[in-house]
Amino acid sequence: MMQKDVHMKPQDLLDSLQFHPGDFGEVGIISGQPHRAKMCLQKLENPVKNFTFLGYTFWSGNYKGKKVTVGNGGFYAPDSALATELLCVGGIETLIRIGSCGALREDIEIGDFIIADSVQRGDGATKYYVDDDFTSYIDKELTDKLEAHFKNISPTHRGGIWTTDAIFRETKEIVNSYIDKGSIAVDMVTSPFVTVANLYKKKVAAILSVSDNLITGKLGFTDYKFFESEAKMIKGAFDLIGGASMANNKE
Questions:
Q1: CA triplet 68, 93, 47: central angle to 5 degrees?
Q2: What's the rounded Cα separation, in Å, for the pair 95 and 58?
Q3: Hey, what domains does the chain have and what are their CATH numbers?
Q4: Measured distance CA(62)–CA(50) in Å, rounded
Q5: Pick from 209, 193, 216: which is nearest to 155 by CA?
Q6: pLDDT one-digit tens code per residue, 168-213
Q7: pTM tops 0.90, yes or no
Q8: Closest of 162, 193, 181 to residue 76, by C-alpha
Q9: What distance in Å separates the CA atoms of residue 115 and residue 140, rounded to the nearest whole number?
Q10: Where does the pLDDT of residue 245 fall: very low under 50, low under 70, confident under 90, or very high at 90 and above?
Q11: Closest to 205 (Cα-Cα) out of 161, 244, 247
Q12: How many other CB atoms are found less than 10 A from the CB of residue 156?
C-alpha cells in the first residue's frame, strides 16, 4: 500500500528538471498551441529554455525591461492543470492565457476576441483540486486592462468561458445549459488554468481568439481571420505587459 500522502509534488518534478528559483519571470504568457508559443518566443530578448517535459517547453527572457516566461502550457484540462501548477510553483505571479475558443453567441465572428470574466468548470481535472461548489475567479483589474487594450484592436467581447473535455460531445442540450449559466464561449483549457492559479493565489486572466461558432455552425480553424487574430492577440498581450499599465499595477 502507498505510504506517502502524495506520490509527487510540483517542486519534486521541477527539481528533477534542474529548475532553479528565479528561472521563470514574474509574468507568464501561456498558450496551448506550440506555434503560438514560438511566436511569443520571438518577442523575447536573450531567451533561455527553462525545460522541456512531455512535449511542453518554457522559455524566459526579457521584454521591455521585464522578465517574461512563455510556452505551450497544455492542450486539454489534465495537462493544462499539470503545466499551470508547475508555473505557479516556479514563481510566476501573473498568468495570462492566450488561447482559442468556440463562440456561443450568434453575433460573435471568427477572429473576434473573448475576454474571460468567469469560468464554468465542465472539465474533469479540476474536481481533483477543488470542491464542486468552488467558484473559480479571474483577476478583475488585469481583465479590465485586457478589455480596454484589446477593444481598440479588434471586436472584443467579455463574458463567461465554459471548459469541456469532450469537443465532439458539445450537444445542444449541454451547450444551451452553459449558455443559460452565462457562458459566451467554450474551450478545453481555461478552467484548470484559472482554478489552479486561484489555489496558488496568482493573478490570472485569459484572452481567446474565436476559431468557430457553435450557434451559427461556422468553422474557422483554417480561416485567415483566425490566424490574423492569433498574431494580433500575441502582439497585444506583449504590448500590454510592456506598457505603463502593467508597471503601475506593481506599485
A1: 15
A2: 13
A3: 28-42+57-249 (3.40.50.1580)
A4: 14
A5: 209
A6: 999 999 999 999 999 999 999 999 999 999 999 999 999 999 999 9
A7: yes
A8: 193
A9: 11
A10: very low
A11: 161
A12: 18
- The Cα 32–Cα 211 span in angstroms is 14
Per this entry, what is the length of the chain? 251
Which residue shows C-alpha cell 506599485? 251
- Give CA separation, 52 vs 17, 36, 57, in Å: 8, 16, 4
63, 46 contact by CB (below 8 A): no
In terms of Cβ atoms closer than 10 Å to its own Cβ (0-12, 13-18, 19+), residue 223 is middle
In DSSP notation, 208-232 reads EEEEEETTT--B-TT-HHHHHHHHH
Determine the distance from the C-alpha atom of residue 171 to the mean position of all C-alpha atoms in its chain, rounded to a whole number: 24
- Pairing mode, strands 94-103 and 66-72: unpaired
- Residue 65 has which C-alpha cell? 525591461
The residue type at 58:
F
203-212 burial string, b = 16+ CB within 10 Å, else e? bbbbbbbbbb
Measured CA to CA, the distance from residue 210 to residue 190 in angstroms comes to: 14
Closest CA relative to residue 178, chosen from 196, 190, 164, 189: 164
Amino acid 171 reads: T
